[in-house]
Amino acid sequence: MEFACGFVYIPPSNNKKVVHKKSPIPIKRSALLPPQSRLRLRNPPPPPPLPHTVLQKPQPPSSESRITESVRKIKDVKTAPNPSTLCENAGLDVQNLPQPLSSHRTAPLLPNMHTRSSTTIQPIPAPGPPPTSNSLTYDLPNEEPESGGHPVEPGYSNNILISSGEEIKLQNKNSTNRSGSTQKSAPALPPRPSFMKSCPEYLVLLPDSFSSTRTSSFSPTASPLDLVKGQPLPGNPNVILVSLGMLITEEHELLIKGEPTSCRQCGSVLDSYYDNVVNVCYFCQPMEPSTSSSLGCQDSVFLLTPGDKALTPTGSMLLLCIDISGSMSITSQVLEGKQRMHRSRLQFVQEAVLQIVQKLSKTEPHTQLGIITFNHQVTLHGYEDFPSIVLWDGQLTDSDYLKELGFSFPSPPPVSRIRDYLQREILGWSANGATALGPAALVAIAMASRQPGSKVVIVTDGKANTNLGNLEVEDNDAQSAFASTIFYQDLGAYAASQGVTVSVLAIEGTDCRLDELGKLADHTGGKVVIACPHELYTKFEEIIENRTIATHCSATLLLPTNLSVRGEREAGHKGTRDVGNVTSDTEITFQFGASSNGDVTPPVVGSRLSIQLQLRYRQKDGGSVLRILTSEREVTDDSSDVLSSLHLTIIQLNSSQASAALAVRGRFQDARREGKEQRELIERALEYNRSAEDKNIYSQWVKTMHPIHNGLHSYTRRQPIQSDSQQTLTDTGAALFYTMKNSNRNALAK
Predict the structure, then answer these.
(1) 317-504, CATH topology level
(2) What one-character DSSP code corresponds to residue 266?
(3) What's the CA gap between 729 and 486, in Å, rounded?
(4) Which residue among 341, 348, 425, 501 is least enclosed by CB atoms within 10 Å?
């Protein structure tokens, strides 16, 4: 059991539990900066020259009165005659000045801006000569313009200190502190140039690199995966791959005999098998979020019913059901060497079957090979002393009689013993009559049902046109068409229940209604193939070499009650799929997700969920086996975590199987929608550090999925104007989609 994603993904919209995520760390503002809401640009007029470098921020009336009252209490301060003058142009001792009663904190001064010696307030002198090199001319603006004024010249910087309500005097070079020592003042600032039309009210004493640092802090530096956090993903990454062939063929040292401990309601199996009833079930009863290990059997195999090794046949049974109707006499031109020759379809089939007989007699001499031919009659070819049986007329319409006759007909002997006899029978075929395909298929399946694991291969070049299973009915005969559909569905179910695999091999350029015949192969794990006449032997080999290793297989997926299986027979947290016969390369996929039931609380992000897979199958000796696998996954709603842990091959295989399954059922719009959603998910995952191999596999997968994405109209039959019946697939479309539905990972890489 392999997961396409390392987590159980729950879209953020489906997660009802509020998850408090950490807020982004805010960018720290310098203590020298004023409040953002008070940062405005002003456009003052040119100031008159002043003897001292003084900066004063306009204060509200209440602040002015408090500051003035504090200044008057200083002993060494000479009171200015005008309080307003004091507030506008004064040099104060910063250490002894009380803090203003303001909600804003005072910005700290730079080391070279500290003043300790100036205790006298200098009056404002009358206009005089130009200022010295140690002074700066500045005046407060008379009016406040709009915020969208002229921009500040980028090359110009005013290193003026910010204050929150305090009056600060920049000391002269020879200023004296209280202890009598002199302290050098900060260098004076140059006068503001005349070309500067506007100046900000607050200027910051910060390095030149501050602006670039602040700008870069807003640029995205995170990985591309961080950009998709919180966004729901397209498609569904919750996919499970089950390699049935690998799981069944694995050898186990410990085989547990008897029934396991199971739940009476859902059938889940716990880790202990000493009791036979589960009182509290994790999978069908609401439980608290778990952070512990998996609940249930990690990996156990139970032998439910022992088999009988003595009854195991030494070789497999293969029955060839060959069409010898009149259409098989149609010829086609072929090139043999340098000569062009005309050969009939029947001649190509005879040549291919003769090669099969010769190969099996050498490589697998114990194979039981039987042959059934059909035209307007059905012939069961005998073996050596046992004569052949011919069925015709009313016998071909009685299903019960045909089933009983096939079941009682003797099994064929090993091919090595009857090789010469079979060759003479094959060379004596002639093409004529109608196509009694339905009765012939029923007899062959009944004959093979005595030995589970047998194969039936039907070779035809046209539609069945006799009463039983007639596929050549008129479009207005809806009742006959429906009866034929039911016949092949029931026949496929019967073959699967008996452990018989049915494959259909059609000749290229013909119309055989493979959309109906393909149901026989789909129910039993067989193949639907269209081959050119000269490629029949190659296709025969592919079908025969696909050995059956187990029969009567079913796979059940068990989830907690807040999850549900999608697209399976049983709705809810439990889904079962009848696989039938299993070969060494059989692989199936499941989809699951959050339950659509609004009354059920979705999984909690961060919790761990257990998921259990149950495989039931029958061995060749008839023994019944149950294998239990349980795994756990963490729940997440983070798209980046999902994309970084996604196995694209599993998603691609699931998309192919699910879309093809919808297409063969006639749900073409749903098939296209399913393929589109999963393709968007794959393309999203390919954007983040994927290897070249993943991209190559994706390119090949896109070509395989082209009929689903863009070309479904090319694989459907044209319906009559007055027909209300459902649109059906052509032979090419049926063979393609049935193959996709039963494909595996190796097929995607081809």
Answers:
(1) Rossmann fold (3.40.50)
(2) T
(3) 17
(4) 341
